[in-house]
Structure formats: C-alpha cells, structure tokens
Amino acid sequence: MSRVIAVANQKGGVAKTTTVHSLGSALGSVGKRVLLVDLDPQACLTYSLGIDPERLDLSLHDVMLRRAGADQIALTVGDLTVLPSTIDLAGAEVHLLTKTGREYALRRAIEPLLSCYDVVLIDCPPSLGILTINGLTAAREVIVPLQCETLSHRGVGQLLETIDDVRSYTNPELRVRGVVATMFDSRTNLARRVIADVESSYGLTVLQPPVPKSVKVAEAPETGRCVLEHAPSSKGAEAYRALASTLEVA
Amino acid sequence: MSRVIAVANQKGGVAKTTTVHSLGSALGSVGKRVLLVDLDPQACLTYSLGIDPERLDLSLHDVMLRRAGADQIALTVGDLTVLPSTIDLAGAEVHLLTKTGREYALRRAIEPLLSCYDVVLIDCPPSLGILTINGLTAAREVIVPLQCETLSHRGVGQLLETIDDVRSYTNPELRVRGVVATMFDSRTNLARRVIADVESSYGLTVLQPPVPKSVKVAEAPETGRCVLEHAPSSKGAEAYRALASTLEVA
Ligand SMILES: Nc1ncnc2c1ncn2[C@@H]1O[C@H](COP(=O)(O)OP(=O)(O)OP(=O)(O)O)[C@@H](O)[C@H]1O
Ligand SMILES: Nc1ncnc2c1ncn2[C@@H]1O[C@H](COP(=O)(O)OP(=O)(O)OP(=O)(O)O)[C@@H](O)[C@H]1O
Ligand SMILES: [Mg+2]
Ligand SMILES: [Mg+2]
Predict the structure, then answer these.
(1) How far apart are CA A32 and CA A216, in angstroms?
(2) Contact B48, B226 (CB under 8 A)
(3) How far, in Å, CA of B141 to CA of A201, rounded?
(4) What is the pLDDT of residues A15-73, one digit of tens each?
(5) Candidate from A44, A90, A97 with C-beta closest to B94
(6) A97 touching B, CB under 8 A?
C-alpha cells in the first residue's frame, strides 16, 4: 500500500517545497517509486524540478477540475514523477469553493495511480485553504517542516486544529508523522528553544536529524536540481537522506 | 497626503511582516504617525506586536465585511497603531469573492483614517489572492521584500504582472517603489547573483541598504517586539532605520 504524505505548514518559506523535492529525490535514489504532487499555484516544486510552469498546457488545475486525468499531466524527471502545477491552480481554489465534495478533488484524482508508487509526497501552499485541505484529505500522513523561529512556531497550533478537522470530517485515518526541523541554525539558542517548545506544547515527534542551514540547498534550484544532485556530500544532502530512511518506506 | 505602502511578495517567508514591523517602528521612533495594517489571516504582524489574535472580538475581517469601522478595531502599541487581523480574515476571502467592488474593501475602510497618519504600511499574505489585491488597490506604492534566493526570485515576474493588472483595473496611481533585499547573506555569491538578476531582468530599484541576516531579527517577536526594540544597535536594526529614512516620509 503506497504511503501518501502531505508536507504542510501554512507559514511561508519553511522549506515545504525543499523537503518534498529532497525527500523525494533521496527515496528515488534508493529505488523507491516516487510521485510528487505540486499543490501550490506558485509552482515552486515544478520549477525546482527544471520544468517551466508557463509552458505547460495541462496541469494539476485541469485534473482538480476533472478536465484531465492525472496520468495525462504526469511528467518524469530522473527517478521522480511529478504532477506539476501552474498559476491556474489559483483559479481551482475559486472553482472548488462552490462544489460538493470539493475536499476530495485531489484524492479522487490520485487514487487510480497509487498502485504504481511506493510513496506520494504532496507539496502544500502557505495557507490553510481548500488546496491544503485537499492535500490533507488525500494523504494518510502529515509531515510538518518547521523553521525553528518564533513566527513559524506560532502557526503550529492552528495547523494541528486543521488536521483535527480533516480527521473529523474528511479523512479519519490522517496521522501526523512528525516535524522536520528545517534550515536549522545550530549556533543559536532560538532554534533549540523553538524545537523544545514545539515538542512539549504539542507532543509532536521531531524527526531526526534536523536539516542544517546550508547555501548548497538554496542554490540547487538555480539548475533545476535539489541539494542531493547539486551537492550530494553536503550536510543538507546527508540530512535529507537520513530523514528519508527514517520514514521507512517499504 | 499620507504615504500608503503595500509590502507584497507572494513567496512565503521573505520578511514581509518583519519589514512592515521594523520600517513602521523606525518611522514611529522619528516622530512619524504610523498605521500598520495586518492583511494576513495568519496574523503574524498582530502577534509580533505583542497582541494575541485569539483574544480579539473585532478585527480587520469585520472591517472588510463592513460590520465595523477601522477606528473600532485600531489598537495602539507604543508609537504605532495597527489594524489587527485574526484567522477569520481567511473567511473574508470567501465572502468578498462574490461581491462587486471586492478589490476596494480595504481602501474604503482606511480612507477616513488617512488624514491622521503620515504613513500606512500594509502587510500582505503569501499569495496573489483577493487580500493582496485589496492591499495593492488601497496603496499608492509597493515595496517588494526579496529573500535573495532562487525560489523567491522566480515569483517577482508574476508579482509585477499582478501589479500591472491592478494599475489597469483598480488603481492607476500604483507605483513600485523598489525591492528590499531581506535576510541578506553577504557571504554567499547566490545573494549577489539574485539581486543583480532582479535589477537587470525587471529594472527594479534595490533600496539601500540590504537587511543582513541576523538572529536578533528572528528572536525579536518572542517578546512582542521588532529588532529595533529588541536589539537597537544590531546590524538588522541599523539597516531598517537606514531604509526608513530612504523612504523620505514627510
Ligand atoms: N536547509 C536549507 N538551507 C538553506 N536554505 C534553505 C534550506 N531549506 C530551504 N532553503 C531555502 O529557503 C527558501 C524557502 O524554502 P521553500 O521555498 O522550500 O519553502 P516553502 O515552505 O515551500 O515556501 P512557500 O511557503 O513559499 O511555499 C528557498 O529559497 C530554499 O531554497
Ligand atoms: N534579517 C533577518 N535575519 C534573520 N531572520 C529574519 C530576518 N528577517 C526576517 N527573519 C525571520 O524570517 C522568518 C520569516 O520572516 P517573515 O515572517 O517576516 O516573512 P513573511 O514574508 O512575512 O512570511 P509569510 O509569507 O509567512 O507572511 C521569521 O521567522 C523572521 O523572524
Ligand atoms: Mg513551497
Ligand atoms: Mg508575513
């Protein structure tokens, strides 16, 4: 049974996209069959895979609105397959708002593909709107990337409430797998305080290891790659490979 | 005539909130009358001013839906006045979508207050949806905080197109004042490359100086302050004070 993991956090810039791309790449490189879903109209995941969103005729937008099947938009990049997005997906939010069963659009779209993949990673946008709700409804597990700073920390409670709502209304089997400490600055006490606080306030597991802050990670998308291809022996790459094996994808 | 400045960038975590709070605080401390508007349902600006969004009965949500006047929700924090938000503002997005003149909700709400302030700074959420459109329609100028990394850089074109649309349809006097280089890591070439690229690709002014990456900035919200109160002689505080004077607010 394939693992379907939503990577969610409504706070902006906490490395959701980076985490989806890097974990996906790490799992792909040990032979897992990986599907990535770009659920963000800003299409950063699509772009960081070296795809130009502006040149796509069909994207996740068309699939969510049932104008195309997921297999029609799937693109292969190295070991990975991606359901890419474009800015049109912002329009899907408006369309879906008035439709019954709007929370299930993504789940319905990917269900036929699940048997072809060992793991599906869903990159959510920085909001708790209908797109993220779709990601949480389609998934069985949630990973929360956490930038260990005050303004990121404060959103965690709200995210967990949203996950509880999704569990009550649209997806009873949803579980929080844990938090990934991203862009971790080990030289400051702030990062350690935030991590300790999140563990104690919310009882969340902090998956190991933290991903260190490293310019190699930020540079990688310049050449349509993630840090594992751009700088495979860097600390960022090592951390994402270690995290990928913690996930124990069968 | 008061300066109304939208601080916008749909990319997450590029220091929009930090820039609004810090520029506001710098201007307030040299005697300008400053109004801050928290246009983000995640209410990070509200929170970083030491206000608990969960304890507010009325917020910008009620004002946007014409259930309350801006003066009824305004709160004073030191030299600053803020129109705070709460998670309810996410509901405003849905409500407004079907209303005529929905882009003008914020402009209409703040117009009566403008004569009381020298400068209004609007903190936009990480999206190009109806809330940011309201911010751009209410403003006369836009400042774009730019985290100098690849995934932030790629959104600038889309933001400028949105600004052009707003200029054509709802706000002909809107001008882009320039880019603020935020969380600038001067030790890496990536930051310099991204800045040079944004200047040449889009002809944007990069306001001086860049704001250096500094843990003092990230720690400040822990105690309901911005870096100017938390660490007034730090490099982050100096940079925001210098940027505030570049704005030449009368
Ligand atoms: N470990 C790291 N070290 C240094 N930079 C990093 C690291 N992880 C991510 N980044 C950079 O931080 C920025 C934000 O990351 P990313 O875009 O993945 O966050 P996000 O949560 O997906 O953002 P959004 O909310 O906009 O979708 C990017 O420029 C990325 O390259
Ligand atoms: N110069 C800086 N040095 C170090 N950290 C910074 C700096 N500026 C901002 N930060 C931190 O970076 C994080 C992101 O900043 P901020 O929340 O202001 O961005 P944002 O663009 O408003 O995010 P969102 O898109 O979620 O609204 C915060 O934890 C903030 O404290
Ligand atoms: Mg992202
Ligand atoms: Mg913000």
Answers:
(1) 25
(2) yes
(3) 41
(4) 999 999 999 999 999 999 999 999 999 999 999 999 999 999 999 999 999 999 999 99
(5) A97
(6) yes
